[in-house]
Automatic annotation (TrEMBL), chain A:
Family to which the UniProt record says this protein belongs: Belongs to the importin beta family.
Keywords (A to Z) from UniProt: Nucleus, Transport
Protein name: Armadillo-type protein
Domain of life: Eukaryota
Tagged with keyword Transcription regulation: no
Organism listed in the record: Roridomyces roridus
Pfam family, one: Importin_rep_3
SUPFAM superfamilies per record: ARM repeat (SSF48371)
Localization annotation: Nucleus
Region ranges (Disordered): 430-450
BP GO terms, sorted: protein import into nucleus
InterPro entries: ARM-like, ARM-type_fold, Importin_beta-like_NTR, Importin_rep_3
From TrEMBL, chain B:
Leader sequence segment: none
Protein name, as recorded: Transcription initiation factor IIA subunit 2
Species name: Roridomyces roridus
Purpose: TFIIA is a component of the transcription machinery of RNA polymerase II and plays an important role in transcriptional activation. TFIIA in a complex with TBP mediates transcriptional activity.
CDD domains membership: TFIIA_gamma_C
Residue ranges of domain Transcription initiation factor IIA gamma subunit N-terminal in the record: 5-51
Family stated for the protein in its record: Belongs to the TFIIA subunit 2 family.
GO cellular component: transcription factor TFIIA complex
This protein's UniProt keywords: Nucleus, Transcription, Transcription regulation
Keyword Transcription regulation: yes
Highest taxon listed in the record's lineage: Eukaryota
């Protein structure tokens, strides 16, 4: 190695720069940080110069400074990976290869330098090894050659395996052309035997000697094996030979010889990899069965004695194992979980299999001293023992472990989900093909019965284990507390799988459990945990059969719900959540069954704990919604609830009012008038007070108004009928029930309520038109009080006057909320019928209303968007505006004809400008509107010769070419590539709707020719001011030719798509196709 | 380099915005196509990881029109579906397509085919839910 005194000046300068850049910072001041960043920029600039090739070897040879050597290796790697190798001649490339190999052969380098050098060699091989078609590459046998150099230099096997692992990773991660990829994989394949032999040698040495001279050798060799597995080029039968020595390295508490922890962990990781991606054609005998045998031996203490003679229930213990056993389970949990995942089908299929496992080398190796019986255990024994091990692993308490291990322990839950599925998927010998003549399925075989008995016993133990795992414990750390809800959810998922095996037995067990704990006065935490388990399995219950389950009537009766521990917020929340979840169950029961649950919920409504109160309000809402008719009989009791609403926190009042309203909805409509009056009257009164106080206390008044609006929304939602729209009668009026509602709406009291409601809304919109929060609250209210005819309620307000309110508010202060509301209301004015053929044209009155609204909205919006930067700065307004126009174009196309002079042209120019916006939602909305508008106008123009036909002609004459130009500029790159599909739809609308006849007629030409909208394409694309792109004349001609000559929309779209790729400069690149996203 | 993770999230608003940004950088020559691909592949990986760790839940009720399963990717087409979120909020839609797949790193494995022989790899099922 050369010393620093003899190095050339440029190298010395580079070394000084590196040392300065990598030196520990003297201070953390901005100036010091900036200085270091400046040095790093200088280094990167230096690295990019051609002269930096000459720095690589001197830097690598610089003694004593790992940073300098690392930068030398890094420079080589970076320049090769960046494709700068082409700047060297072939001889120089070979010279670089030999020099890097020589540098790699220098022993004693720091690990970071060594690994970077190996990476540089790998990158070089990726470029030199593949040949050029007929000729061979410049570095055949690069793997073997490099290994030879390293071995000759005396590098330890760990370093050689580090290189080999990196080689496999580099090749698998490289972005190569298919032929080059094949050649690189071939180069790895030619080294496969060398790799296997090398790993096998290290493995054999590790198994045979206690004192290993190089402790890093085995982990490196196994990491190398793991790196080569995904490539799939190591022969499966050769890897299989490595399995016995790997299993022999695993920990075995029964073994008299202590296990080396580092070795056993490395072996376990490798076996996990093999379990996750076993080579093709490996049967269970190669890996699974030997590992199940290991499990049976290593965890023999899980079932001490001859547990096979015990009853089924006792064989599967629901208790946590003792500390020593728990520690052993935790240390092997990753491998056990991986074995469970990979072998779950084997376990499910083998539970009662009497076949003995043939003891292969793998299962015997290293365990001969453990007294293994000569003929081997049965598969059934191994499978059942594994179930017990997994139960014990699931039950392990992780309180005293760190978080990582905790997560590993929890992942055992996944096994039970997989096992349940595997149990269901076991073929039963075509039992259904052998059905008797009466169609009855064949009786269960003894084996099926035995398997069912074992799986039932195992899952019965599991539900006991899981119940104990979800018990809340005082004194947990913050992190544990935060993770607990997610853990409980995962346990809940597993309980669902357990339910599929145990069915009603699970409910019976848990209900009996909670009852017994209440009887015994056990801790509230245990009661709460059982309630949580019952809640978790609800989603698996069949709603039809759940009603007949006696356990549930006990649960929600006085035996349990009437005696739940009081004073504990967590119990109350869970119990209320349980009622909420099971609210539909009560609909299948006599009304009296609701009693205990309803009393519990009502009692919690005024609870001081906010979480309890919220859960109570949610539960009440669900109960009332699902049991309207049953509760309507007790409407008097709900009057009392309403009278006491003052004690309910403000945040929950809307939910309580919604609950009461949903019960009122079940009354005959005329009987519901008075209760509705009683509900709405006070709210409107308080809203009026808030409006009156707005001048004095604006903030408090605004908050009070929002609260009252939320309550009105809740009442309106509650009054809406059942949510299943498919359950309505065929006619649009909602049948007999709908007719009764319409009669009740004529009552003077309801007319007065609606009038007061409308006036209040109009005043709120006038006063707080610029307030986003109020706008949102009004938006929710509008959705609740405007409805299709079939959904009409006593409170429903017609859309027309509300549209006027919205337009006036938008005129005062334009926001996206008002435009979105206008869209909803316009849609309500022309509601779709249940049967499309019955669609009637909107009335003249409605048409006039929409025309007026359009004029106001377009005027307001163009005033804002027409200002400089208006469209870019208000993307929400642009999006909602075009969405609103799209609605009008669909339902009230002629409304555009009534726009004031100049407004239509300004509107079209606005839409055309929007086609070049970079904010995609604005652009997509504009694109969608233009497409809809062109389609609708063209569709109705033939029957609207006085309005839409002249409008279409005007559009074609004045705006046609501008739309086409904006569209084509969008393809060329003015618009983001993600909106290509939207632009394609607009192009399709243009070329199909504005054909030759339509355009010639619009432009007053009688002769044929011109090509319609297609004919505009050449003049736009070849114009000097067309959007500058990578598309040359040839590409443009190809595109234009297809668009002009093709009559197929599909081909036109394909040509446009290809043009986009070319215009973005991505032709011939996989990136252009792989990155394109759907619009 | 083809991504070893599902690319489905590139169609999300976040993915679309990223694709558009990467497109711009590649077009202007600020980054190479290779780097662009790496960024998108990293996005695929990160989204797959993030989605696997989401705790939020929703239950869906609707009329199942069609469903299919191809290499462990499930497609469900629903009509008149209602999503009930964990916070009790409900969202209704007339049509929705649901694509469900396992955690992203299962893609390469769960293609389930040996790259050399074309044979189905036994035990390629990982069983992760995502």
């Amino acid at each position: 190695m050369s010393s620093s005194s003899t190095v050339p000046p440029d190298v010395a300068q580079a070394i000084a720069l590196i040392q300065a850049a990598y030196a520990p910072p003297s201070s953390a001041t901005p100036a010091a940080i900036q200085a270091v960043q400046g040095l790093q920029v200088q280094l990167l600039t230096l690295q990019r110069t051609p002269a930096s090739w000459g720095l690589i070897l001197p830097l690598l040879a610089f003694p004593g400074d790992a940073n300098v050597q690392f930068f030398g290796a890094h420079t080589a790697h970076a320049k090769i990976a960046r494709g700068e190798l082409d700047s060297l001649t072939e001889e120089q490339q070979i010279g670089l290869r030999d020099a890097l190999l020589e540098a790699a052969g220098v022993t004693g380098r720091p690990r970071v330098v060594r690994r970077k050098l190996y990476a540089a060699l790998g990158a070089l091989a990726l470029r030199l090894t593949p040949g050029n078609g007929a000729s061979e590459g410049q570095w055949p046998g690069w793997v073997q050659g490099t290994v030879e150099v390293l071995v000759r230099a005396g590098e330890p096997s760990a370093h050689v395996h580090e290189f080999l692992a990196g080689a496999a990773e580099d090749v698998s991660g490289a972005n190569l052309l298919p032929q080059a990829k094949i050649e690189m994989i071939d180069s790895l394949r030619s080294a496969a035997q060398l790799v296997l032999q090398s790993i096998g040698t290290v493995l054999a040495a590790s198994s045979s000697t206690q004192a290993d001279p190089d402790p890093a050798a085995l982990p490196a060799a196994l990491a190398c094996l793991t790196a080569w597995l995904p490539a799939g080029i190591l022969p499966g039968q050769d890897i299989a030979r490595l399995v016995p020595p790997l299993i022999a390295l695993l920990p075995n508490p029964s073994s008299p010889t202590p296990t080396d922890k580092i070795k056993s962990e490395a072996a376990a990781i490798t076996l996990c990899e093999l379990l996750g991606r076993p080579p093709a054609a490996w049967g269970a005998r190669v890996l699974l069965e030997p590992l199940f045998v290991w499990t049976a031996r290593a965890f023999a203490f899980i079932s001490p004695g001859n547990s096979e003679d015990e009853s089924l229930d006792r064989r599967y213990s629901p208790h946590a194992p003792p500390p020593d056993a728990a520690r052993a389970l935790r240390s092997s949990s990753k491998l056990l979980v991986a074995l469970g995942e990979a072998g779950v089908e084997w376990v499910a299929g083998s539970i009662v299999d009497p076949t003995r496992v043939a003891l292969t080398d793998a299962s015997v190796a290293g365990t001969s001293q453990m007294g293994m019986e000569a003929q081997g255990p049965t598969r059934g024994f191994l499978a059942r023992h594994f179930l017990r091990v997994m139960l014990a692993l699931t039950a392990v308490d992780h309180d005293d472990e760190d978080e990582d291990e905790d997560e590993e322990g929890d992942s055992a839950l996944g096994f039970w989900y997989l096992l349940q599925e595997a149990l269901w998927e076991i073929p039963e010998g075509n039992e259904y093909e052998d059905d008797g003549e009466d169609g009855e399925p064949k009786a269960e075989s003894p084996a099926q019965k035995a398997r069912a008995a074992h799986s039932t016993a195992a899952y019965a133990a599991l539900v006991r284990v899981l119940r104990s795992k979800v018990v809340w414990r005082r004194g947990w750390g913050k992190e544990r507390v935060e993770k607990f809800p997610a853990f409980r959810r995962d346990v809940g998922d597993t309980l669902v799988n357990a339910y599929y095996v145990l069915r009603d037995d699970l409910l019976v067990f848990y209900v009996a459990d909670v009852q017994a704990r209440i009887d015994a006065g056990r801790g509230w935490e245990d009661v709460e945990a059982t309630l949580h388990c019952l809640r978790a399995v609800h989603e698996a219950l069949d709603p039809d059969s759940a009603g007949a389950t006696p356990a549930l009537s006990i649960l929600f009766g006085p035996q349990v719900f009437g005696r739940l521990p009081a004073g504990y917020a967590r119990v109350r929340r869970t119990a209320l959540g349980l009622v909420d979840t099971y609210s539909g169950y009560f609909a299948t029961q006599p009304p009296a069954a609701l009693g205990a649950a309803l009393r519990y919920v009502l009692g919690a409504l005024t609870d001081a704990e906010p979480g309890v109160c919220l859960q109570a309000a949610l539960a009440l809402r669900s109960l009332c919604d699902a049991n309207r008719r049953a509760l309507a009989a007790q409407i008097g009791a709900f009057a009392e609830v309403h009278a006491g609403i003052g004690g309910v926190p403000d945040s929950e009042k809307a939910k309580v009012l919604q609950s009461i309203a949903s019960v009122i909805q079940a009354l005959p409509p005329t009987e519901g008038i008075a209760p509705v009056e009683a509900l709405v009257g006070p709210v409107l009164q308080r809203l009026g007070e808030a409006l009156g106080a707005a001048g004095m206390h604006p903030e408090a008044a605004q908050q009070a108004a929002i609260l009252q609006l939320d309550m009105l929304t809740g009442i309106a939602k509650g009054l809406t009928r059942a949510t299943d729209v498919m359950a309505f009668d065929d006619d649009d009026g909602g049948g007999v029930e709908g007719a009764a509602v319409r009669v009740a709406r004529e009552d003077q009291r309801t007319v007065a309520i609606r009038e007061a409601l409308f006036q209040a809304i109009a005043r709120v919109a006038e006063l707080w038109s610029a307030d986003a929060e109020v706008g949102q609250a009004l938006s929710e209210l509008f959705r609740a009080i405007t409805a299709l005819p079939a959904d009409l309620t006593l409170l429903s307000v017609p859309a027309q006057p509300l549209l006027g309110v919205v337009c006036r508010a938008a005129g005062r202060r334009l926001t996206g909320v008002w435009l979105a509301l206008a869209t909803i209301l316009i849609a309500q004015l022309n509601p779709p019928p249940m049967i499309l053929a019955l669609q009637a044209a909107p009335s003249a009155e409605v048409e006039a209303c929409v025309q007026s609204a359009m004029g106001e909205i377009v005027g307001s919006v163009l005033g804002v968007l027409g200002a400089p930067g208006g469209m870019v700065e208000n993307p929400d307004i642009v999006q909602e505006f075009f969405a609103c126009l799209d609605r009008v174009a669909q339902d009230f196309t002629t409304a555009f004809c009534a726009l004031p002079d100049g407004a239509f042209d300004a509107l079209m120019q606005c839409a055309i400008s929007a086609l070049a916006l970079q904010e995609r939602y604005s652009l997509v909305a504009a694109c969608t509107f233009l497409g809809t508008f062109i389609h609708r106008v063209a569709l109705y123009a033939p029957i609207s010769s006085e309005q839409l036909k002249p409008l279409q002609a005007h559009m074609i004459r004045v705006h046609g070419r501008a739309i086409m130009r904006a569209l084509l500029c969008g393809f060329a790159g003015a618009a983001p590539r993600s909106v290509t599909s939207n632009l394609l739809e607009l192009l399709a609308a243009l070329v199909t709707r504005w054909d030759e006849n339509v355009v010639n007629e619009a432009e007053g030409r009688s002769a044929l020719g011109g090509g319609g909208a297609r004919g505009w394409v050449p003049s736009v694309v070849f114009a000097d001011d067309f959007y500058p792109s990578r598309a040359g004349r040839e590409a443009k001609e190809r595109f234009v030719k297809t668009v002009v000559s093709s009559r197929s929309v599909k081909k036109t779209k394909e040509a446009a798509n290809q043009f986009v790729i070319v215009a973005w400069g991505l032709e011939g690149s996989s990136f252009g196709y792989s990155s394109v996203s759907s619009g | 380099m083809p991504s070893t993770f599902y690319e489905i999230y590139r169609g999300s608003p976040l993915g679309i915005a990223l694709c558009d940004s990467v497109d711009d950088y590649v077009r202007s020559g600020e980054i190479t196509e290779e780097l662009g691909r790496i960024v998108l592949a990293e996005f695929d990986r990160a989204l797959a990881d993030a989605m696997a760790n989401i705790d939020a839940r929703a239950s869906i009720k609707g009329h199942l029109r069609t469903y299919r399963n191809c290499v462990d990717v499930w497609y469900f087409s629903l009509r008149d579906a209602t999503f009930k979120m964990h916070n009790k909020q409900t969202v209704s839609t007339s049509r929705v397509k649901i694509v469900a797949c396992k955690h992203g790193d299962a893609v390469a494995l769960d293609l389930g085919v040996d790259p050399e022989t074309g044979e189905v790899i036994p035990g390629s099922r990982r069983g992760k839910r995502g």
